[in-house]
Amino acid sequence: MTEVTAANAPDGTPTRGGASAVTVARVRGRGPARWTWGQLGLLVVLATVVLFTVPNPSLAIGMLIYGLWASGLNLLVGYGGLVSFGHALPFMWGGYAAGLVLLNVTTSVWLALFMAAASMALLSLVVGAVCLRRTEVYFSMLTLAFAQLGFFIALQWDSVTGGDDGLAGIPVPTLWLPGTTLELNSLRDPLTFFLFTAVVVLVTFAALILYTESPMGRVLQAIRENEERARGCGYNTRLVQLVTFVVAGTVAGLAGGLFAMLNNFVGLQPYWLLSGGVLIMVILGGRSSLFGPFLGAVVYLLLETTLSQYYASWQLFVGAIFVVCVLAFPQGLWGLVISARPRRLLSKVRRRR
Amino acid sequence: MTDLILRAENLDRSFGGIHAVNDVSLEIPRGTLHAIIGPNGSGKTTLFNLITGHTHPSSGRVEFDGQDITGMAYAKVARKGLAKSYQITTVFPLLTVFENVRIAAQAAAHSYVFWRPADGIKAVTRATEEVLERIGLAADRDVIASNLSHGDQRRLDLAIALATSPRLLLLDEPTAGMSPTETAATVELVRELNRDVTILMIEHKMDVIFDIATTITVLHQGKKLFEGAPAEVKSHPLVQEVYLTGSL
Are residues B190 and B218 in the same domain? Predict the structure, then answer.
């Protein structure tokens, strides 16, 4: 190394030139795609925008719930490279679990949500242990099979699930907080319901970010890149994938529980379409982050409500938009936004030269 | 008796009618650099796979640091301190160079932690930086692995293996596809690594290992043809015949 390029002055203090070189390296090193905790801020912004712009409160709350569901699924799809075709199962299970607790046990929102998430965690452990015996398309088929199995059980077992009629008349949940008790009535007081949902969603979303940033979440991404090599580092790759499956299932169960409270009803109807719908939200929004699928869910619901007002066959249009999106920008809406930034920066640098 | 890190006894494996590895035994003392040479198809890679647990031996046993690891799953063998670098470059293509090595470096103590950010674990970051420095990839730490040159990807492959702090490093043709300059640099690197880790390596280029190996085993058609110090191997008439004429 010559004297000219040395970063430090002879007395050891960094010179101005050296310091700026370090800063540049660090900025380049972080990379524009590495949004981590910033996603939490983005979510707060998005939730605020939804709160003030979406006129229908039930749709606004639904956006938060579907967003959380899609973000959780992206742990499997984007971070783990495991495409689940059956993510409606945990969502519906969470709905039934919360609904049954509210109907038969207590109206406590905490207990209902806890039961939705905890029972789904247990079920995910069993389902995941079976599905993860295979990878790629075989994994996808197994998840689909389990979702179908769940559908038929819910359909047949009407003494518990209400069968085709669904679980109706779920009572309004009550929210016990230190010092006060609130009614979570989505019709009479949608703002309270929205704020409560937003807090639950934000906390869960933060937990998801932490998971993707943790050593285990990093191993999950390494397994997606090269499972054999991850095994060569000494990792039990199946275990990491199973934990992820359980986390994604638990989050979906939680979202399903919230959704049951929002509607005071759990229905069977668009069941298998939901598995495809949530996957579309993930891919539409972008698989490379947790925020992308959330954005995808909001856009998807916006499209659905707008288009279904004018056309009975609105799904045709959603399908067409989806096809165009996948072909034109496979990195998704959010991927498009963040990849547009460095390109502009690059062109600036080129112009300066 | 010498202190053995690895002992393979009478390993045997056939695929269909092909006897890929035929009654091969190896004894590798701690701290040495043991090389396996032989023409294409002589069973070198299969022998490696028998040691790492990728392939189960038809008969025979493998002992690592006094423990029987015959037929043990690869991940478990890896956790015991046996790391392998691959013949066909095997990295995590869409992760950065730093992340590639960090994944390996965290394996020892922080495998399944999910309640704190990985970037906050200082000891792992330090270990990763040390390995990158040693391998000479420190300047490329933020490059996406698939964008590296072939030679650098092979070095990254080696860095991943090294970052798991192994007690025995298995290198499957570390110089494959490298230019003469890159080869020389890698040979120098292997020699340097051998100062604190035992190495068992397969090599196709004879000149590469004659300078650095402690012991050389010559495989031919699945059988151990000869074993000895580099100078003995070089002058042995059978070895010369195999390498010069390609047959016995």
Answer: yes
Chain-chain contact of A215 with B118 (C-beta, under 8 angstroms): yes
Do B239 and B174 fall within a single domain? yes
Q: What is the pLDDT of residues A83-110, one digit of tens each?
A: 999 999 999 999 999 999 999 999 999 9
Domains identified in chain A and CATH numbers: 35-352 (1.10.3470)
**Rounded-to-integer distance, Cα A216 and Cα B110, Å:** 8
CB distance A325 to A332 below 8 Å: yes
Give chain B positions within 8 Å (CB) of A240.
Answer: 112
Nearest CA in chain A to B165: A233
Tokens 């712009």 belong to residue: A53
Residue with tokens 């910033």: A38
pLDDT in tens, B114-147: 888 888 888 899 999 999 999 889 999 999 999 9
B74 and A29 within 8 Å at the Cβ level: the answer is: no
Check whether residue B111 and residue B206 sit in a common domain: no
Distances (CA, A) of A155 to A87, A97, A243: 18, 15, 29
Q: Above 0.90 for ipTM, yes or no?
A: no
- The C-alpha atoms of residue A330 and residue A348 are separated, in whole angstroms, by 25
B161 and B178 both lie in a single domain: no
Number of domains in chain B: 2
**Chain B residues with CB-CB distance to A233 below 8 A:** 78, 103-104, 107, 160, 164
B230 Cα to chain A: minimum distance (Å): 30
CATH number of residue B37's parent domain: 3.40.50.300
How many pairs of residues across A and B have Cβ atoms under 8 Å apart? 100
C-beta atoms of A211 and B113 within 8 A: no
Residue B220 structural domain: 1-81+167-248
Domain final position from B109, B137, B165: B165
Q: Which residues of A touch B115 (CB under 8 A)?
A: 210, 214
Going by the DSSP 8-state scheme, the letter that residue B58 receives in this structure is S
A-chain residue closest to B139, CA distance: A25
- Predicted local confidence at residue A270, as pLDDT: 62
Query: What's the pLDDT at B99?
Result: 94
Asked if the model's pLDDT at residue A32 lies above 60, the reply is no
Predicted confidence at residue A26, as pLDDT, reads 32
Question: Is residue A287 within 8 Å of residue A280, measured between CB atoms?
Answer: no
